[in-house]
Design a protein that fits this description.
Ubiquitin-like (UB roll), two-stranded antiparallel sheet, alpha+beta, 3 helices
Length: about 140
């Protein structure tokens, strides 16, 4: 079984900026990847497209995006990060077309908010709310 010469992974000579894959004659791996880094806060969102060397990490992408300078509230020791909505570590290597996301800290604990809503719902059922003098 042979691969056609015009196949994207087959080539007689490597494309500019490509690295040869070991053990696979005629196949090449791109040496650069294209990623985007995003950060959003209420009323403002920023997306930065980058071209990085293959093997770049989440942290390298964030640092090269310039978002740390533009948004000083971002603290990589405190803010969680992810790739395509899945939590990631800063040393995780990126793949071509990955989307790195910087998450803001939660304002409130979701469990506590649910407990408060449930408590308010019970109070409403028991008391039925305030009635004005006109309604009695």
């Amino acid at each position: 079984m042979s691969t056609a010469p015009d196949s994207p992974l087959r080539a007689e000579s490597p494309p500019e900026g490509a690295k040869k894959l070991l053990g696979r004659p005629g196949e090449f791996l791109e040496s650069q990847i294209h990623v985007e880094v995003v950060y959003a806060k209420p009323g403002q969102a920023k997306r930065v497209a980058l071209t990085l060397d293959a093997g770049a990490t989440v942290q390298q992408a964030i640092e090269q995006s310039g978002l740390l300078d533009e948004f000083p509230e971002i603290d990589l020791g405190r803010n969680k990060v992810g790739v395509w909505n899945k939590l990631a570590k800063l040393d995780q290597p990126l793949r071509d077309k990955d989307r790195v996301e910087i998450y803001r800290p939660l304002i409130a604990d979701p469990k506590e908010v649910r407990k408060q809503r449930a408590a308010e719902g019970k109070a409403m059922k028991k008391g039925g709310g305030d009635l004005s003098a006109d309604q009695t």
